[in-house]
Design a protein that fits this description.
The protein has a domain of 136 residues. It is 42% helix and 6% strand. The protein has nine helices and six strands, in the order αααααβαβββααββα. The protein is mostly helical. Helix 1 runs parallel beside helix 7. The chain starts with a helix and ends with a helix.
C-alpha cells in the first residue's frame, strides 16, 4: 500500500511540474482540480479507510473481509469515475487483487520474492510475520503470479501485479489532474488564433430553408444530402376534345386575331324602299327594293 501511495504522489508531483513548465500557474492548476467532478466520493473514502485498517488488524478472518470489502468499494468508486483519465487502469489493478483474494481466500506471498527484496534470507523465513490477509503460497495456490511475487529491493517490500497496475493508474490520475489545466487553456488559445485563419469558404455549403413549393430546386454543388421531393402541383381536369380538327403547326405560326375595333359609324343617309329620290333635274323617282340604284350623295363621294 505504501508503494501505491508513493506512485500516486509521484504522479501528482510530475503533473504539477509539467503544468508549470507548459505555462500554467499554481492558481490555475488548483482551479482546474476544483473543477473536476468526482462521483460518489464517499465510496472512495470508505474504501481507503478500510484498506488502512487491514494493516492494523491481526485477526486473519477480519483482515480478509476488510480487505475484500475495501477492494470492492475502491473498484466501484473507480468505475463510477472512469471519466477521469487513469481511473479505469486503477480499477483493473484492484480487480486483479480482488480476484486472487476471492479464489484463494487470502493473498499469496512468494518466499523467493521476500528474499529477493532483501527483507530476510531463507534461514529466517519462518520468522517473517505476514499481514492479516496474506499467507505463503504453496502448490495448492491458484494464480500465485497475481499474489505478492514482485520484489521491490529499494523499498524492501513485495507487491502484487494488481498493486503495480493500480499504482500506475493512480499516478496517471494525479498527473492528469495537474497537467490538463494549462494544456487545455493553451489548446483553446491555439484554436482561437489558428483554426479561424484556415477558414475555407469553399467548404461551406448553404442549404435553403425548408419551404412548401411546387417547383423543384436544383441540387447544390457539394451537397450530399438528398433533396426533399417537392409537393406535386395540382392537375386540372382534362378539357373535352374539340370537334374541329386543329392543324399540326408550330406555336409561332398560329394566327393571333387582333382585338375588335369599335363598330363603324352608320351611313349618313340610306334610302329606304318606296322612298322618292330627286335626280339632277329635280324630279323624284320611285325606287323599288329590287332595282339597282346608284347613290350620288355628295357627302359620301365628295361631289
Amino acid at each position: 500500500m505504501s508503494f501505491i501511495a508513493l506512485l500516486a504522489l509521484i504522479g501528482l508531483g510530475v503533473g504539477f511540474a509539467a503544468a508549470l513548465v507548459t505555462g500554467g500557474t499554481p492558481s490555475g492548476i488548483l482551479s482546474g482540480i476544483r473543477g473536476v467532478r468526482i462521483n460518489h466520493w464517499p465510496v472512495l473514502v470508505l474504501g481507503a479507510v478500510l484498506s488502512l485498517a487491514v494493516g492494523l488488524d491481526t485477526n486473519m478472518l477480519a483482515g480478509r473481509f476488510a480487505l475484500g470489502i475495501s477492494l470492492a468499494l475502491l473498484l466501484v468508486g473507480c468505475l463510477l469515475n472512469r471519466h477521469i483519465a487513469g481511473a479505469t487502469i486503477a480499477a483493473i489493478g484492484m480487480a486483479a487483487n480482488l480476484g486472487v483474494l476471492l479464489v484463494n481466500g487470502y493473498v499469496p506471498v512468494s518466499e523467493g520474492a521476500v528474499v529477493a527484496a532483501g527483507i530476510i534470507d531463507f534461514d529466517g523465513i519462518d520468522r517473517v510475520l505476514l499481514g492479516a490477509a496474506r499467507r505463503w503460497s504453496d502448490d495448492a495456490t491458484i494464480a500465485a503470479w497475481l499474489g505478492g511475487a514482485i520484489p521491490l529491493a529499494p523499498l524492501r517490500d513485495v507487491i502484487t501485479l494488481g498493486d503495480l497496475v493500480t499504482a500506475a493508474g493512480l499516478a496517471n490520475v494525479g498527473f492528469r489532474l495537474m497537467w490538463p489545466g494549462a494544456r487545455e487553456l493553451q489548446r483553446l488559445a491555439a484554436v482561437s488564433h489558428s483554426d479561424f485563419d484556415d477558414y475555407d469558404e469553399a467548404s461551406v455549403v448553404l442549404r435553403p430553408a425548408g419551404q412548401r413549393t411546387t417547383l423543384e430546386h436544383p441540387p447544390l454543388i457539394g451537397s450530399t444530402a438528398a433533396a426533399t421531393p417537392a409537393a406535386p402541383a395540382p392537375v386540372a381536369a382534362p378539357a373535352e376534345p374539340s370537334p374541329v380538327p386543329i392543324p399540326n403547326e408550330p406555336a409561332w405560326a398560329s394566327r393571333v386575331e387582333p382585338a375588335p375595333w369599335p363598330a363603324p359609324a352608320p351611313w349618313p343617309h340610306e334610302p329606304q324602299a318606296e322612298e322618292p329620290i330627286s335626280n339632277q333635274a329635280g324630279e323624284y323617282d320611285r325606287v323599288s327594293g329590287d332595282e339597282p340604284t346608284e347613290s350620288h350623295d355628295p357627302q359620301l363621294f365628295g361631289a
